[in-house]
Amino acid sequence: MFLVPFLMPTGTVPELSGRANLMDYASEDSWGNHDHADDGEMGHNQSAHGGTFAWTDLNPYYAFVYAFGDLNCHQKFERSWTINGNQMPVCARDVGIFFGLAFGGWWFSRRGVNRWPIRDSFLSLFSDSLIEPLYMNDRRLTAMFGIGLLFCLPVILDGGIQAVTSYESNNLLRVTTGIPFGFIIGWYFSASISSRPDRFGHDASKVHLPAGARLSTPVEAFESE
Asked: What CA–CA distance (Å, rounded) separates 76 from 45?
């Protein structure tokens, strides 16, 4: 996201303004290169903002990066940073989200543990002594969702208020609120793919949990009753 606009010749990427989850700048005839009204909710008069742009004209590596941004981001120039005279492939908030996503995955790889269910693997980032009460009262699922909501709240408030009021955020705040949102996604995703019952031979008794808690399969729970 940073390297490609830095390496490209200055002025290769003009001011963009497209739509999220749609390809707007694939070719010179694409939607984003049309002359839309500058005061509209989406798009702008592209000819007045540096001319047309088509990522299919770039080399494969540059094209992939800008195609990824085109598909995933609205690419509004007023909400994006410019490097070397080239607008970045994604907006400032997405920069924060992708940074948080990578950092969340990296952090889980350092401290996360496979504990069979996703919620237990998710909570393994905390020390056992800290989360013991959650196991004694069986509040693991509630804690996981609560943590998720807490990390999502900054981007929900900043983006939500901006969407329904005249409030306009700034790029520093956008990237700052995007980081925790991306972090929780990376954290949850890593916990999901790391939760592997087969690593325990599908034997729940081999899973070590805080507070001496133990897992039981539905069959074991039925037999104990």
From this structure: 12
103: left (phi over 0), alpha (psi -120 to 50) or beta: alpha
Please give the residue range of the domain that contains residue 118: 94-202
196-220 per-position pLDDT tens digit: 999 999 898 899 999 988 887 665 5
For residue range 84-102, list pLDDT tens digits in order.
999 999 999 999 999 999 9
Residue 134 lies in a domain: yes
- Residue 209 in any domain: the answer is no
If asked whether residues 99 and 51 sit together in one domain, one would say: no
Question: Is the model's pTM score more than 0.70?
Answer: yes
Torsion of CA 147, 200, 110, 183, to 10 degrees: -30
Whether residue 39 is contained in a domain is answered as: yes
**Token pair listed for 69:** 């941004």
Q: Are 123 and 141 in contact (CB under 8 A)?
A: no
Nearest to 75 by CA among 50, 110, 105: 50
